[in-house]
Amino acid sequence: MTTKEQIVENWLPRYTGTPIEEFGSYILLTNFVNYVTMFAEKFDVEVKGQGRAMQTATAHDITIINFGMGSPMAATVMDLLSAISPKAVLFLGKCGGLKKTQIGDLILPIAAIRGEGTGDDYMPAEIPALPSFRLQSTVSASIAKHKMDYWTGTVYTTNRRIWEHDDTFKEYLRQIRAMAIDMETATIFIVGFANSIPHGALLLVSDNPLVPEGVKTEESDKKVTNDYVKTHLEIGIEALTELRKSGESVKHLRFE
């Protein structure tokens, strides 16, 4: 294999256990296998990729992929998805809230701050990590249908998983006025841009890590899963279903 196209066409099935031709045109990304399981149960379809690096399920031209956690894996899945040139990719991620957010709130980011470093291997640091407006607009409408509200703003993406003890870093987060922090969104945005893949994100606030009592625990994470994940997933499915039915292009930028 001498070209990127040859590599990703071989590696996408290798990572996921799913043949190229079985992927939908619309992709949901998640860090958690229970999202894939819930999707599969909803549509009575098989979960593929058990024992592989990534698991998938597909129904109605939508494929959900659990790609794992962190910026390098986010870049990997966006590179692999170039093998199928999806019409839209929506990341359903969890994040730490940094301002007035409460656990269970939704954040629809208008941009992501590239603090993870991985995106620098794809695009110069000066290029902002932005979502596709048409996709985010459709997600906004889906949230409204559920009679829910959401926050908007920037999300800071970092490679650091354990930083809640670092007061200097927490002060930096306050200074840049980010709405949330996670480990994937900026990478998905910038690598999606590099691969000409329309992309967006809907983030679920799972903790408030700037204060000691807000740091995620096993117990608090279970509560988030039990109380909020189903709706998070439903909104994502409905947004991509609406795009599929409309037949409209999600691309809003000229990829040159």
From TrEMBL:
Transmembrane segments: none annotated. InterPro entries: AMN-like, AMN_phosphorylase, Nucleoside_phosphorylase_d, Nucleoside_phosphorylase_sf. It comes from the Bacteria. Pfam families: PNP_UDP_1. Keywords: Glycosidase, Hydrolase. GO terms for cellular component: cytosol. Residues 38-235 form the Nucleoside phosphorylase domain. It is an enzyme of class 3 (hydrolase). The keyword Hydrolase applies. One of its GO terms (molecular function) is AMP nucleosidase activity. One of its GO terms (biological process) is nucleoside metabolic process. The keyword rRNA-binding does not apply. Its EC number is 3.2.2.4. NCBIfam families: AMN-like, PRK07115.1. This is AMP nucleosidase. The lineage of its organism: Bacteria, Pseudomonadati, Bacteroidota, Cytophagia, Cytophagales.
